[in-house]
Amino acid sequence: MLIKGIHHVSAITAKAKENYDFYTNLLGLRLVKKSVNQDDPTVYHLFYADKIGNPGTDFTFFEIPHAGRTIHGVSSISTTSLRVPNDTALTYWKNRFQQHGIDHDSITEQGNRKVIPFRDPEGQRLILISDENNTGVLGGTPWEHSPVPAQYAIIGLGPVTLTVHDATPTVAILTNVLTFKEGTNYPSSHSKQKDIRVFSTGEGGAGAEVHLEERTDLPRERLGRGGVHHVAFRVEDDTELLKWHARLQEVRIPNSGIVDRYYFKALYFREPNGILFELSTDGPGFTTDEDVNHLGETLALPPFLEDRRSEIEAKLTPLHTKRD
Fold first, then answer.
1. What's the pLDDT at 80?
2. Which of 87, 92, 224, 245 could form a disulfide with 68 if both were Cys (CB 3.0 to 4.6 A apart)?
C-alpha cells in the first residue's frame, strides 16, 4: 500500500466560461473532460490536464454559479502548485503574466526551488514551481496544440499547501495512516509563524509533496469561488483502493466508501482539521469514453447519467470547447 503522489486537485469557480478561457488560453492546459458534477449534474465539472489527462496533471473545477468569494483561513488547501520544466520557464511566465495583466508576484525561492506565485481572475492561489532541481515523480506531456510553447508548458501538479491551526493531528494522518514522510522545511512568508513543513511519498519530488503551514493568526476558511474543495492522492488500482478502505475502517476514520467516478474510483475522508482528502485510482482514465484527439470537446457523462442527457444539457449554460 503506497500513496504515489498527487492525483488531482478540485477547486471552485463561479464562471465556467471565464475559467475555461483562463486555464486553456492563458495557462495552456488542455481541457480533457467537460462533464458535470456527479453529485449535482446541473453544473459543470471541468478537468484540465496534460495531453491525455495523466494522473498527477489534473486540475479540476466545480462550477457553482453565484458562489461567494473564499474568505482565506485555516483548515484549508491554501495553495496549488503547477510544475514547469525549469527556471527559464518562470521568466517566460513572468513576462506572460505581465503582458496579460495577471496578478502575480516576483520570482522567489521555496526551499531549493524557484517559484512564482500568482492568482487566477477569481483569486485562486497558485504557484508555478520550477522542476530545475526536482527529482522523483515525472511530469506529464504538454499538449501539442497548447498556445504555450512546450519548453515552457505546465507539466503537472506540484505540492499542495495545507494551512491549519494545529499541525499535530494532520501530521499523524499523513505519516501514521497514509505513507508520507517528513523531510525538510522552509521559512514562512508570514512573520512570527513557524516554518512550513514538507512531507513526501512514493518516488518523492514536487509531484508527491504536501506542504504543511501552521497559522495561529487566521480564522477558519470559508470556502467559495477561488478556493480548493479537495486534494486527491494517487493509488495504483482498485485492489489497492480496497486495502485503503479497510485501513480507514481499521483506524475508525469516517469515509465515503469507494465511489465509482467512471474515470477513476475514489475514497473520501476528512483529516482532523476538516480538510477533505481523496484517494483515487490511476485508471481507467479520460480516454475511456472519448478519442484522445477530441478530449473535452463535447459534454461527457458517465453511463449512469447518460439517460438524463437531454435534461442535463437543457440546464447547462452552453460552453463552446470544440477546437476549430
1. 98
2. 224
